[in-house]
Amino acid sequence: MENTLQILRESLENMEPIFFQRHERDFSYELYRQMKNYKYPNNVEVTCETVKTRFSLDENILKNNLINKCFFKDKNNIPPNIKRYPDLMVHEFGTLDHQILAVEIKRVFNKELILRDIAKLVVYCKGDLKYKKGILLFINSQKERFLEIPEIRILLKEYPEIEIWIVKPSINIDIDVICSKNFNPRNQL
Hints:
Number of helices: 6
Helix content: 25-40%
Largest sheet: 6 strands, mixed
Order of helices and strands: HHEHEEHEHHEE
Mean pLDDT: 84
Radius of gyration: 16 Å
Number of domains: 1
Structural class: alpha/beta
Number of strands: 6
Distance between the termini: 26 Å
Shape: globular
Strand content: 15-25%
């Protein structure tokens, strides 16, 4: 897992600064391209916006009221063919083996969308797909904005496999990580 997180960090550092100003999809595809340059264990690869066919709306994790509320914007109008899949994944394609990392990418600070993406990451990690780590990669924001949202604190404390990486391009890439460790009483922010 640490190797995969290091690959993610190095891939971000290798990106040209212009991609940090572009649309989310352009950013995602360039990050995907950078991550493809690395060697992964046998049968493991990085993929982009791959539909996970084993994902189900019957996931037990969706019984958690906060996850359910964040995952579905309007519980009464759930589309029958809902699709939820990560922007990037490091996994063994077509199996449930080696589900290493699911990444959601956001550029615009919108509380509702951020909570939905965190809920999606929880479902990927704690549901049937069993990803080891979920990261919400946020471009050009401030750590304090996330810490002001009580639901984020609750979700990150309850699900330590989820992290928020706030990426700010400069001469070197600056990454602030918000995770369950930030909310340890001794390290209270």
